[in-house]
Design goal:
Chain A has helices at residues 2-36, 58-74, 85-90, 92-97, 110-117, 135-140, 164-170, 178-190, 205-218, 220-227, 236-248, 261-269, 326-336, 339-348, 367-378, 386-389, 392-408, 413-428, and strands at 45-50, 77-82, 103-107, 151-155, 158-163, 194-197, 273-279, 293-296, 309-311, 314-319, 354-355, 381-383. Chain A is α/β, with parallel strands linked by helices and 429 residues long. Chain B has a single domain (79-326), classed as MetI-like (MetI-like fold, Orthogonal Bundle). Chain B is flat. Classes of the chains: A alpha/beta (429), B mainly alpha (327). At the A-B interface, helix 1, helix 4, helix 12, helix 17 and helix 18 of A face helix 2, helix 13 and helix 14 of B. Chain A: InterPro entries: Bact_solute-bd_prot1. Chain A: Residues 1-29 form the signal peptide.
Chain lengths: 429, 327
């Protein structure tokens, strides 16, 4: 009850503030010239909001290292505002409409575009192109109005991870065709190993499976317009995805709904499961087996569509429209996309991410990171992951329960897709 | 005690005596007292209005709109009762959530209460180490439900949890065991009960402490009288002690209702109230907290929850007022 009361209050506060924020944002932009005092330079302070709590681990250390490097290079003071990851995410709406920091950590995709559309983040098209940032990243930074609102910093691919030693011992090889893939899984089952580790207690990991199956069976373009609410969820295409998924489920770990992704990763780390479809952050949960990991992208399922698309969520930075120091914020955002910033982050702490900037040094990269670069640059289409590519309301309140329902009851595809479509129609209007 | 209670009437009579000439009902307070009374009434009134009624009314208003929280209030699209229609027709988690809330109420009302009474009666007998048990049973009450969710995760985890591990260990030794692959938190047919057990673990301690206090307050002569009359222990408890503890029973009743209506934290920590653990409060949060900001839809759910709560609150208040009148 307490939480709810707080929510109602924050709604009202949000409503009250938003009127102010939207009004004052344009004022500030107009008179930003004198307070901003030029793009950067001594004496200026930029406020930097980050979605990692102080001392929370490598992700925080990387951001801190970037901020320090920026201060050193440009003599701009960076005022860090470190907020716990989930808290940051959950309050982003009120944050942006209240008194946000100038630059803040955010994600590419629909999640960025919706803020651009609502006028909550600043147009950064005058900062583009950024040296070393190729076209696919510019595309990922572009919102519906063809302007850029985002500066990519790092990304990681979703793929099927496995332990090299386990594969070697059994004489397995990473499959490239569907037949190889199926044969590999049959063989694994024969040897008493669960082919694919699977956990969906938190609701989002299974979205990765839906994404990749949809991209393999219906193609990248269909996937993206489905995410945008422009295709029907109860059409044959989506049913095909669930149908294929139902056929693959016997190869997945049983009872995924009570298992966290960490527990699923552990089972792969221990060799009880053969593979795991997840992002490279999987290494956080496999302990000593991290050095032994390798991965391959999900094999082709339809030769007319191929296997050149994958999920590779991009993290980066936006400038808040209600931030006080627009010019300095923009300048810092641009710098954060540079090779120098990526190097500072990589020197600050190891993380399984790869820098978006092609000029960044790869000397600190692990084998896994080097392979990530290879795989992602070979991909011709990159999706951001379902909860970043579609309306957040829809992803969390409709898709999570629906996918979980499907995993409980894989035979009721018609019922589930019909229910998704009804709710999608209500949300996308 | 006795003198303290008798004292005020004495002074009261004294006052009445001095004010005797004034007719009843026209009693006027001195200006300063009136000011105090007015302040003491208005401040809580404003707080209640501002913190309870206004937000509640705001929720009701918002529940007729569609709004994602961007922009001012003028961007709300008014959709009439569509949110309510959607909630009840095309939103699959809603009806399970209502059912789960009711199960929660029923379960909490029966099992932890009985267990709590039983523990209280046992501990009241002052057996050896009763202080230790008292502390041990009360301990979970001090823990937050979020922590309790985590503690029980260690028991319930399908692959790494204690319960399944113990069973696997028993089975490995050829001893009778339960299935080792029970998915306690993940199987929607089981997880609600698993969570209710975890809740009861905490709630029973609370009930125990209340009854323990009640039992200590029962006049020892009552027991003696019952014993002299030849009543058995069980009879004495049900026919003499339990009725005497009526105030405690009322408090426990209220606590059960409150606890089950605000049931939220535990399921939220476990899986954000999905997959068999849907509760209305969790659905409200799913829809309005986080990036998912279906304020209208979430408010409609909140209003429904408010209505359900009101039913119980009205019943409770009626009982309380009837008691007052009877006195």
């Amino acid at each position: 009850m307490v939480t709810m009361a707080a929510t109602r209050r924050s709604v009202l506060r949000g409503a009250a503030l938003s009127g102010l924020a939207v009004g004052s944002a344009s004022l500030l932009a107009a008179c930003g010239g004198d307070s901003g005092g030029g793009a950067s330079g001594s004496g200026t302070t930029v406020k930097f909001g980050m979605n990692e709590a102080e001392g929370s681990g490598p992700a925080y250390d990387r951001l801190k290292a970037m901020a320090a490097a920026y201060t050193k290079e440009t003599d701009t003071k960076v005022d860090m505002n470190a907020i716990d990851h989930n808290t940051f995410q959950e309050n982003i709406n009120t944050y942006l409409q209240g008194a946000p920091d100038d630059v803040f950590t955010w994600f590419a995709g629909f999640r960025m575009a919706q803020f651009a559309e609502a006028g909550l983040i600043t147009d950064l098209s005058d900062q583009w192109p950024i040296d070393g940032m190729d076209d696919s990243f510019k595309q990922a930074a572009t919102a519906g109005d063809d302007k850029q609102y985002f500066v990519p910093a790092s990304y990681y691919p979703w793929a099927l991870f496995y332990r090299k030693s386990v594969f070697e011992k059994n004489g397995w090889e990473a499959p490239t065709t569907e037949d190889d893939f199926m044969a590999l899984m049959e063989d694994m089952q024969g040897k008493g190993i669960t082919p694919i580790a699977f956990g969906d207690k938190d609701g989002w990991p299974a979205m990765g499976t839906f994404d990749i199956l949809n991209m393999r069976l219906n193609g990248f373009d269909f996937h993206m317009s489905l995410m945008a609410g422009e295709e029907k969820w109860d059409g044959d295409e989506v049913k095909l995805v669930f149908d294929r998924w139902a056929k693959l489920l016997p190869f997945h770990q049983e009872d995924p709904l009570g298992r966290t992704w960490q527990e699923a990763a552990t089972s792969m780390g221990k060799g009880e499961s053969g593979m795991y479809l997840l992002g490279t952050f999987v290494i956080d949960a496999v302990g000593d087996a991290a050095e032994d990991l390798d991965f391959f992208t999900f094999p082709e399922l339809d030769s007319s569509i191929g296997a050149d698309a994958l999920d590779a969520p991009i993290d980066g930075f936006c400038v808040a429209a209600a931030g006080k120091n627009q010019e300095a914020g923009k300048a810092m955002a641009k710098w954060l996309g540079s090779a120098a910033a990526a190097d500072a982050a990589n020197n600050g702490a190891d993380a399984p991410m790869i820098a978006a900037n092609t000029g960044a040094s790869t000397s600190t990269y692990s084998d896994l990171q080097k392979k990530s670069v290879e795989v992602v640059s070979a991909a011709s289409n990159i999706a951001q992951f379902m909860d970043r590519d579609t309306n957040a309301d829809f992803a969390s309140t409709v898709m999570i329960p629906s996918i979980q329902e499907f995993l409980k009851n894989p035979s009721d595809i018609d019922g589930i897709t019909a229910s998704i479509q009804e709710q999608a129609a209500s949300i996308f209007g | 005690m006795a003198t303290a209670i008798e004292d005020p009437p004495a002074t009261g009579e004294g006052q009445k005596a001095t004010r005797a000439p004034r007719p009843r009902g026209e009693k006027k307070l001195p200006p300063r007292d009136r000011l105090v009374v007015i302040t003491m009434v208005t401040i809580p009134l404003l707080l209640v209005l501002g913190l309870v009624w206004l937000p509640a009314l705001g929720s009701v208003v918002l529940s007729f709109g569609k709004w994602n929280g961007f922009g001012g209030i003028e961007t709300i699209e008014w959709v009439g009762t569509q949110n309510y229609e959607d909630v009840t027709t095309i939103y699959p988690p809603f009806w399970p959530a209502v059912r789960h809330n009711l199960i929660w109420l029923g379960f909490l009302f029966v099992f932890p209460t009985i267990l709590g009474i039983l523990l209280a009666v046992l501990l009241d007998r002052e057996m050896r180490g009763s202080r230790f048990y008292q502390t041990a049973f009360y301990m979970p009450v001090v823990l937050s439900l979020a922590l309790i969710g985590f503690i029980w995760q260690l028991f319930y985890s399908r692959d790494q949890g204690l319960i399944n591990d113990v069973s696997a260990g028993l089975a490995a030794r050829g001893l009778p065991a339960w299935p080792t692959e029970v998915d306690w938190y993940g199987d929607p047919d089981i997880n609600l009960w698993a969570v209710l057990v975890a809740t009861s673990w905490r709630h029973a301690g609370y009930v125990m402490l209340l009854y323990l206090a009640g039992l200590k307050g029962v006049d020892a002569t009552l027991r003696e009288a019952a014993a002299v009359d030849g009543a058995s222990e069980v009879k004495t408890f049900f026919h003499v002690i339990f009725p005497v503890m009526r105030p405690i029973n009322m408090i426990v009743l209220v606590i059960v209702v409150i606890e089950s209506l605000r049931a939220f934290d535990l399921v939220w920590v476990i899986n954000k109230g999905r997959n068999g653990l849907e509760l209305i409060a969790a659905l409200v949060s799913q829809n309005v907290i986080g990036e998912a900001t279906r304020y209208g839809f979430g408010s409609a759910l909140a209003v429904i929850m408010m209505l359900i709560s009101s039913v119980f609150i009205v019943i409770y208040l009626r009982i309380v007022f009837r008691e007052e009148r009877q006195r």
